[in-house]
Amino acid sequence: MSSEARTAKKSRSKGKPKIGVFKFASCDGCQLSLLDAEDELLGVVGAVDLAYFPEASRTMLKGPYDIGLVEGSITTVHDAERIQEVRRQCRTLITIGACATAGGIQALRNWKDVDEFIRVVYATPQYISTLRLSTPIAEHVPVDFELRGCPINKYQLIELITATLAGRKPNVPTYSTCIECKRKGNVCIAVARGIACLGPVTQAGCGALCPSYDRGCYGCFGPMESPNTASLTSQFRILGQSDEQISRAFRGFNAWAWPFRKASEECDRT
Amino acid sequence: MNATANRTIKVDTLARVEGEGALYIKMAGDRVADVKLRIYEPPRMFEAFLRGRHFSEVADITSRICGICPIAYQMSAVHAIERALGIKIDPRVRLLRRLFYCGEWIESHALHVYMLHAPDFLGYQDVIAMAKDHREVVEKALRLKKAGNRIVQLLGGREIHPISAAVGGFHKTPSKSQLKELVGELEWALEASIEAVRWTSTLQFPDFEQDYEFVALRHPEEYPFNEGRLVSNRGLDIDAAEYEDRFAELHVKHSNALHSVLRGRGSYHVGPLARFNLNFDKLPQVAQEAATQAGLRPPVKNLFRSIVVRAVELVFACAEALRVIATYEPPAAPGVEAPTRPGVGQAITEAPRGILYHRYAVNEDGLIVTAKIVPPTSQNQKRIEDDLREYAAHLVAWPLDEATWKCEQAVRCYDPCISCATHFLKVVIERE
């Protein structure tokens, strides 16, 4: 080994791209996906420097970072400021999961009186400071790529990191869950059994899990590219679903994603 | 002059825990003046937005409180709602739910023992640095974790936020042959877990014992998951329905998580140590033997030995999973039909970190009227502060950075899940 190579080996991050993992309001599940990639984890950490990943390490190196992975939604004034700093520190900023890309389940507050919510949960409401809305990261700073899912698919995450480092476009499809379901050879539960299923308007990525487990898709991966929610709403009505039920179906983990939000609000109005 | 007098230990972002929190310890000479475990994870207010949702959606929604223990949230939710609606589940479904929980315990405990906690004992910043010197150990940990995740994946479709749990049972149950495919890897995992008990027992443990009130479920025949009475080593013995009469949640200014106390008694300890101490006799022989050989006898009061107890629970979970698989017969139907009728139901189940309480009131349309959720970390939070008040006093003469690390290690003994309790941990030790 040349002395130069030795120096490079000694220096923790020399030559390896630096990755930072940042958390906002969320359940930690999407960043955990990285630790859940049991077969790939040691390979990944061999190729990159996880410079800031508090869930896994006490070492918290300062930026700038080559890639920032952001989990969670913005719900506090402090976080709205912190995301600006995270953006400044990251060359490529990738949001991961339904909270970061759509506001998450906590965006259900967006239709309600947040002060009343705080009073329900906390005895001394004045100790709590929170924003009225739970909003996705892209409403605050420019985002380079949004990886969907509640939770994200770990193989899509590894593909995304690999593609970003290689400077190519990641292979993350934007078609519907129906395509995945057909490829698996599932019998359509909506057609054959009349089960209300969000598969036709939901982006692929989970492997059509719910229909494979005899239940309707509940939309974890958020709206596909150009979803026809109006048509699905009519179909749900034909299946005997009430407007309240349809509104609740769209108002799940990706409730604040525009097509789903619009679809649920249309049901509220009728 | 005493160089160590009057200082502050502070960790602004406590690492290797789930969620966001900070620890602040103020020392005045050899006295600990103040301890605050500050949870600044933003509140997400599940209990508020669950109102008006249908009972069939609750397990899917509450699983999103925590990406590390979603099954715990699903199990407490479905059992509480089943109680509200008066549903009796098929005994075979009951067994399958135990298997589901085994998967989560194995995945969560393997993650905590090796990847989050062991680096403290061995002096590494993280498991990645540890892997450079102990690659075989880390590879084994990952394989063990994966064995647990395979159970979760098979029963629930995916590791994080699985999709099969339902009020009344499951959406779909596996075939016998699908479960049999898990056996080979679980037999390996059982051996690996026994080795984990031996390996963790060789670590160095600070001499720190406390007189805890341990609280856990107790079932007449089994090591507890989903059923049993809530008991303690000081005579508590109640049904889940009495929980709120005996426990109170306090809202303190420095935390977005509520502090739980036993009314009239104060802090208490939930999790592996509590379960082990209160249910040692219900552990299968293989787990009891592994514990005994590692020198563990109940009551274990040394907080730092919780890493060994977690490994004992890994042995239990692998053995239990194998037992369930060996006796499994698929239920006639994946679940029983849930009636729509008003009711109130409570349930406590044993999440990897300790007891998780849920209560729901359901109306005549099947919609949730009120919801209450008390996660294990908020139950341990006051106890963590009480421990640190004692423990920090032992560290007066230590250099600040080492004392800080030790306090962090103590907090991590609880495997705190701050995402659950609202939701990362920052430690600050201040010496005046």
CATH architecture of the largest domain in chain A: 3-Layer(aba) Sandwich
Q: How many E strands of chain A?
A: 5
Mean pLDDT of chain A: 91
Overall 3D shape of chain A: globular
General description of the model:
- The complex is a heterodimer of chains A (270) and B (432).
- Chain A is of the alpha/beta class.
- Chain A is built from 13 helices and 5 strands.
- Chain A has helices at residues 3-10, 29-36, 41-47, 77-89, 98-102, 114-121, 154-166, 177-183, 189-193, 209-212, 229-238, 243-250, 258-269, and strands at residues 18-23, 49-52, 65-71, 90-96, 145-147.
- A 5-stranded parallel beta sheet of chain A has the order 2-1-3-4-5.
- Chain A starts with a helix and ends with a helix.
- The relative contact order of chain A is 0.12.
- Residues 1-13 of chain A have low confidence and may be disordered.
- Chain B has 432 residues and is of the alpha+beta class.
- Chain B has one domain (7-431): Cytochrome-c3 Hydrogenase, chain B (Orthogonal Bundle).
- In chain B, strands 1, 2, 3 and 14 form a 4-stranded mixed beta sheet that branches. Chain B has a 3-stranded antiparallel beta sheet with strand order 6-7-8, covered by helices on one side. A 3-stranded antiparallel beta sheet of chain B has the order 11-12-13.
- Residues 422-428 of chain B have low confidence and may be disordered.
- Chains A and B meet through helix 2, helix 3, helix 6 and helix 10 of A and helix 1, helix 4, helix 5 and helix 6 of B.
